Amino acid sequence: MTVQITIRGVPEEVRDELSARAALNRQSMQEYLRGELERIASRPTLRSWLDEVQRRKAAAGTGVPTSMILEDRDADRR
What we know:
By secondary structure, the protein is an all-alpha fold. Helices cover 67% and strands 0% of the residues. The protein is built from four helices and no strands.
């Protein structure tokens, strides 16, 4: 079942940019925005991604000390 979503208060310049992007893809604004919403919804949120990374890191029991990261970073600057 599909639903309708209405977004009010979108600035004209944002609407114009989205319209231009849709046109470049030879899509209607509706098709373009539906595709973008599906793409966004298919990806994990940043918070859930970070939680998963932390979970995997804890499960692996490995880590790199901050001091080592900074030393390696600074080695290229000398």
